[in-house]
Amino acid sequence: MIPNLPLDELARRYNNGAAVPDWQDTLLPRWQRGSDRVRREAGGARDVAYGPLPRNRFDVFTPPGASPPGGWPTLCFIHGGYWQRLYKDDWSVIAQPFVANGMAAVIVGYTLCPQTTIRGIAAEIETAVAHAWQHAPALGIARERVALVGHSAGGHLTAWCLTTDWTARGLPATPFVAATAISGLFDLEPLVPIYLNEALQLGNDEALAMSPAYRERRVDCDLTAAVGGAELDEFLRQNALIGQAWAGVREWTLPGLNHFSIIDQLTREDTELFAHVAKALR
Predict the structure, then answer these.
(1) What CATH number corresponds to the domain at position 277?
(2) Which of 69, 100, 114, 232 has the fewest Cβ atoms within 10 angstroms?
(3) Has residue 17 been placed in a domain?
(4) Which pLDDT tens digit goes with each residue over 80-131?
(5) How many structural domains comprise the chain?
(6) Backbone angles phi, psi at 167, to 5 degrees
(7) Are 169 and 176 in contact (CB under 8 A)?
(8) Cβ–Cβ contacts within 10 Å for residue 110, how many?
(9) Parent domain of 70
(10) What b-and-e string marks burial along 63-90, b requiring 16 or more CB atoms within 10 Å of the CB?
(11) Inter-CA distances, 215 with 158, 189, 218, 252, 270, Å
């Protein structure tokens, strides 16, 4: 559904960079410095290829030493960037509090638009998840204790993964113990008439087809849809929409947080957001 708004107002309600203009000068450099440190110091494997394209890579970060029998409980994280920006290496910092608390983290990279489509990205994410599951023993991952988390476009992809028939890829129908979509986009039709579609190249039919809110949910795990209380109106609406569309969704608004400060909560172990995700893995 495209809200009945002037196009410039609709575009404003999706322009997180304009709403929080300093995030690239404050949060992003700190995340990148933390990511560099995690990439140097954590165990695991880097740039594991799950497909033939340059960005078909994920990193596995683990605590020091040998993995326990059956592997480490594992966070699988899908980054945002409106499907067209950023890279997995910017987000290694997400692994830091998990590794420090006896868990592993898989940070997934993927091809960006316009080099591919949102449908193409969704297929890459499915392939990455399946590859990690199939190679779990070698990677030190506990197949039975994987929690899926994504932010923004990654929140969309997290929800998409709950509409996937994983049995067709040789996985259990429910391969996750829990999923958390943070500041996600679940209805893509409002993106069609605004500036974001220059790279996404969505038609209305494809936007609806790729919208989790209008698809059948197949994966039966706990799902939390989290959004910051200080986010733009459309993100608040999108979060409520998935709660209306699917049964059993925990809608969670974190007061005072914007589109970027909410994901910063996942980089530290003293926050409610980290505690929520970690609880599903413990």
Answers:
(1) 3.40.50.1820
(2) 69
(3) yes
(4) 999 999 999 999 999 999 999 999 999 999 999 999 999 999 999 999 999 9
(5) 1
(6) -65, -25
(7) no
(8) 28
(9) 7-281
(10) beeebeeebbbbbbbbbbbbbbebebbb
(11) 13, 14, 9, 21, 35
